[in-house]
Amino acid sequence: MTNPLFSFSRSPSSRSRLIVGISGGCDSTALLRLMVECWPNPSQKIVAAHVNYGLRGKQSQADEKAVRRLCARWKIRLKVLKVRDFKKRLHQNQKSLQDQARELRYSFFQRLVRQEGAWGMAVAHHLEDQAETVLDRFLRGSGAKGLSGLREIQTLTFSDSEPVLKVWRPLLRTTKKSLEDYLKSRNIDWREDESNEKLAYRRNQIRHEVLPFLSRWNPRLTEVLARMGEVTAAEDQFMDQFLEKTASNLKGRWTKSAYRCQGPAFQKMHPALQRRWIRRTAEKLTGEARGLSFDQVEEILRLWGGRKKGPRDVGYGLSAGIEGSWVYLKNSGLKKS
Fold this sequence. Notes:
Elements lengths: L17 E4 L4 H13 L3 H4 E7 L5 H17 L2 E6 L3 H8 L3 H20 L3 E3 L4 H13 L13 E5 L6 E5 L7 H10 L16 H13 L6 H27 L5 E2 L3 E5 H5 L3 H15 L8 H11 L7 E4 L2 E6 L2 E6 L6
Parallel strand pairs: 1-2, 1-4, 2-3, 4-6
Antiparallel strand pairs: 5-6, 7-8, 8-11, 9-10, 10-11
Helix pairs in contact: 1-7, 6-9, 11-12
């Protein structure tokens, strides 16, 4: 990689095959073009992936056509997922639009990675995305975990049938303006998604209202938040590795819908590791537990410590309690938050 817009500390081997997500917008178009210019043998080693959710009618179709033209011009293979009846699925699954779209998108990416024998996925998250993620997590009340930003390389865990997806984010230190300037310098057009301006979405509120307001006190707030996220993401990764070694003493037992471990061994763990292990366990039982609040984690700690009688519903369809010397967390399948 020789382009200065790529500024990362970790990356897959340059011999690897990669799936590159492209929506047609500025960020992903810039990423794909950078990969074409910098990745060895891109026509053989890169496969572009586009999802057409069909939510914006003719605009969605125009996005797909624009992506097809770019990939044909740059001689990059393209795989497209056309989502049928997205709104019907949304109603049936009772999920938010963003969660449903994310689930469909990453499931598609995972299938492509497996089919193409690829290392994983490259996505176009940039410096502002990092800052917004850190601030969003902090505002949701996730505590110190909220300061942990996006990782350059991360392994996402899904269901048993599609367990993992490696994700590379090579643009985390690159600004949005730099990507726009890069495309303009090469006379490359991109698509604009009008929904990115709608303040009905939480992320857009943070981008267009909260960050600009807070930046009145620190004009470099976006950069500060992004760097904080980068540092804490590395520390978070170290803590996860340390946690795995410590948790081996718990003699934990997993089933598809439950986890249990020795209560006395759990109580010997440092409180910081206890909270982290509860979050890890809850998220493994249900992906929706990513939204588990500090108070809900504390509730599980009280139940597991015998300071509160159980079993009790602790949110997201999970219940916690004690059975003899064992403490447990179960997924009842009821999707409450």
